[in-house]
Design goal:
mainly alpha, two-stranded antiparallel ribbon, Cytochrome Bc1 Complex, Chain D, domain 2, 4% strand, 6 helices
């Protein structure tokens, strides 16, 4: 019981107090066409095992564009190469307008995103972040400082 209480207390640190995990689960239904949340054991925690977008398990604290074996677009890989990691602010900004976010984050008017879907409401994006964080392990100490090993990832065809 002590472990469970400690684990729940620690997990709550990753989930914003104002965000609603249940609302995030509902909004995530819009995301599951392209994304899945699948743990290391291969268990699908949310979604329909879609592979168009990267697996969102472990997203909090992950280097942006840094999931091994996923073919990201050049702009998101370039952002990850700067050491940027996914946190609530970057996630909310990105999913509201992926191309605009990358252009601003990279200070590059030609930056593009392969993700065309947008969650227009910041509140929806915050709820989805809370949902993803609730299903993900806490980031390990030092994960945020690691650069992605896939800096030369090829860009897959757009959808």
């Amino acid at each position: 019981m002590r472990f469970t209480v400690t684990a729940l207390a620690f997990a709550s640190l990753a989930v914003p107090a104002f965000a609603d995990v249940e609302a995030g689960a509902k909004v995530f239904n819009q995301c599951q066409t392209c994304h899945v949340i699948q743990n290391e054991a291969g268990e699908v925690l949310a979604g329909k095992n879609a592979k168009t977008g990267p697996n969102l398990y472990g997203l909090p604290g992950r280097v942006i564009g840094g999931l091994p074996d996923f073919k990201y677009g050049n702009s998101i890989v370039a952002l990850g190469e700067t050491g940027a990691v996914w946190d609530e602010a970057s996630f909310v900004g990105y999913v509201q307008d992926p191309a605009k976010y990358l252009k601003e984050a990279l200070n590059d008017s030609k930056a593009t995103s392969k993700m065309s879907y947008k969650l227009r409401k910041a509140e929806d994006a915050e709820h989805v972040w809370a949902f993803i964080a609730s299903l993900s392990p806490a980031p390990a100490e030092g994960d945020e400082a690691e650069a992605p090993a896939e800096g030369e990832a090829e860009e897959a065809p757009s959808n």
